[in-house]
């Protein structure tokens, strides 16, 4: 499993293509949230896929000063997925958007035919774990998403949003979360602007607001009390020149800009314009820290549930492997029995029955034990006492005691 922060356009597409084109990947699910991109792959070639994804990210991202992706394998990746679905691994602990986003990504992968039995079982179990945590703990009680934290921050700075003019720049996942958390705040006007105007219109309809084209962004800013920036652009969208132009018509009216984009889409020098203040994702850290502190006990409870589910998966996998070994052993023994029985029936017409039965049983025992004996001797020659002890345990053998 690879976890990658999506900070450039096209990375999700590149990662998906890398997994789809790899002969070593049996199944895959790409999970896209507001501030992360994760890829889960079922494969027997972990190192090969790691190298492929690492090369994909390095090619898509033009700088390499810092590592912002990481890889997890096997049980660690399962534990991580469970933590993500439960909201433990979120900026705002307990946020309730992530489970929906994971479920949606999983459904899309299934529809595309990229999910088989391994990832189907894994993601179904992850969703069950998420439900358990939300039912059995208070982890998400009163919890906020990044979007609602942005609204909370706006209220801390401006007071109630009743009668205020709010602008949302962007119409993607994060903007949608912000819009959801505006419900009940009763702003006077809501403007929505986006590079794709159709998307802006859709979100504006949900908010009973007004869609604005990007070429009217300065005008929109000039009429706003707070501007919430949540785009996925790889470059600055709101610059000092935009804000300066907007503030000319309202010099005495303060403006709050909250930029929750990753990377930031507002230049830091906008604060040089009188009356303008800017907050970025860093400003949400205090809210996040407070959130974590209040939920420490709930995090522990959630982690216990995750540990229980991981232990259950481990037991199930061990049972599955044992059952598979038993099935194959029984299949081998039955094949030997049938072959020898057929041979004995052909011989018994012309040979003494006792001799045939004696030969039959010897042949069955010899064939069943041949591979076992060969491997046991090899283990003994190599000093592999563990295998020898296991064989004794499996067959219920007891070591002879030394005579005094």
What's the helix and strand layout?
Elements: E1 2-4, H1 11-21, E2 25-32, E3 37-43, H2 46-60, E4 69-71, H3 75-86, H4 98-111, H5 117-136, H6 146-158, E5 165-169, H7 173-182, E6 189-193, H8 197-207, E7 210-212, H9 217-222, E8 226-229, H10 240-247, E9 255-259, E10 276-280, H11 285-294, H12 296-347, H13 353-381, H14 385-394
Parallel strand pairs: 5-6, 5-8, 6-7, 8-9, 9-10
Antiparallel strand pairs: 1-3, 1-4, 2-3
Helix pairs in contact: 1-2, 3-5, 3-12, 4-5, 5-12, 6-7, 12-13
Short description:
The chain has 14 helices and 10 strands. It is of the alpha/beta class and 404 residues long. It folds into 3 domains: 2-142, Glutamyl-tRNA reductase, N-terminal domain (Beta Polymerase, domain 2, 2-Layer Sandwich), CATH 3.30.460; 146-292, NAD(P)-binding Rossmann-like Domain (Rossmann fold), CATH 3.40.50.720; 319-394, no CATH class.
CATH topology of the largest domain: Rossmann fold
**CATH-level-2 architecture of the largest domain:** 3-Layer(aba) Sandwich
- List the secondary-structure elements in sequence, H or E: EHEEHEHHHHEHEHEHEHEEHHHH
Oligomeric state of shown chains: single chain
Task: Explain what you see.
It is a single chain. With 404 residues, the chain is an alpha/beta fold. It has 3 domains: 2-142, 2-Layer Sandwich (Beta Polymerase, domain 2); 146-292, NAD(P)-binding Rossmann-like Domain (Rossmann fold), CATH 3.40.50.720; 319-394, no CATH class. The protein is built from 14 helices and 10 strands. Residues 1-7 have low confidence and may be disordered.
């Amino acid at each position: 499993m690879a976890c990658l922060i999506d900070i450039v356009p096209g990375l999700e597409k590149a990662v998906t293509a890398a997994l789809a084109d790899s002969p070593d990947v049996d199944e895959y699910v790409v999970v896209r949230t507001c501030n992360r991109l994760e890829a889960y792959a079922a494969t027997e070639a972990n190192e090969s896929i790691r190298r492929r994804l690492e090369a994909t990210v390095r090619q898509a991202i033009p700088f390499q000063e810092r590592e912002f992706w990481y890889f997890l394998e096997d049980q660690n990746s399962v534990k991580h997925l469970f933590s993500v679905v439960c909201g433990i691994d979120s900026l705002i602990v307990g946020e309730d958007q992530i489970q929906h986003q994971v479920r949606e990504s999983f459904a899309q992968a299934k529809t595309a035919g990229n999910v088989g039995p391994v990832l189907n079982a894994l993601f179904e179990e992850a969703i069950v774990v998420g439900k358990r945590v939300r039912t059995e703990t208070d982890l998400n009680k009163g919890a906020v998403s990044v979007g609602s934290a942005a609204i909370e921050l706006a209220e801390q700075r401006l007071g109630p949003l009743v009668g205020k003019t709010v602008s949302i720049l962007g119409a993607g996942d994060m903007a949608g979360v912000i819009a959801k958390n505006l419900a009940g705040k009763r702003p006077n006007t809501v403007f929505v602007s986006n590079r794709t105007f159709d998307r802006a219109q859709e979100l504006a309809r949900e908010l009973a607001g007004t869609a604005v084209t990007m070429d009217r962004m300065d005008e929109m800013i000039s009429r706003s009390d707070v501007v919430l920036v949540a785009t996925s652009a790889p470059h600055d969208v709101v610059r000092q020149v935009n804000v300066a132009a907007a503030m000319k018509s309202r010099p005495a009216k303060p403006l709050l800009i909250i930029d929750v984009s990753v990377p930031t889409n507002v230049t830091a020098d906008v604060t040089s314009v009188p009356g303008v203040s800017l907050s970025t994702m860093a400003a949400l850290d205090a809210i996040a820290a407070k959130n974590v502190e209040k939920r420490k006990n709930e995090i522990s409870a959630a982690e216990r549930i995750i540990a229980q589910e991981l232990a259950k998966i481990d037991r199930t996998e061990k049972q599955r492997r044992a059952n598979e070994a038993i099935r194959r052993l029984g299949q081998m023994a039955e094949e030997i029995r049938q072959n020898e029985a057929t041979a004995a029936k052909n011989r018994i017409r012309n040979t003494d029955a006792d001799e045939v039965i004696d030969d039959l049983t010897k042949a069955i025992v010899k064939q069943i034990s041949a591979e076992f004996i060969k491997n046991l001797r090899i283990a003994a020659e190599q000093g592999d006492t563990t295998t020898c002890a296991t064989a004794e345990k499996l067959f219920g053998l007891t070591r002879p005691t030394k005579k005094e």
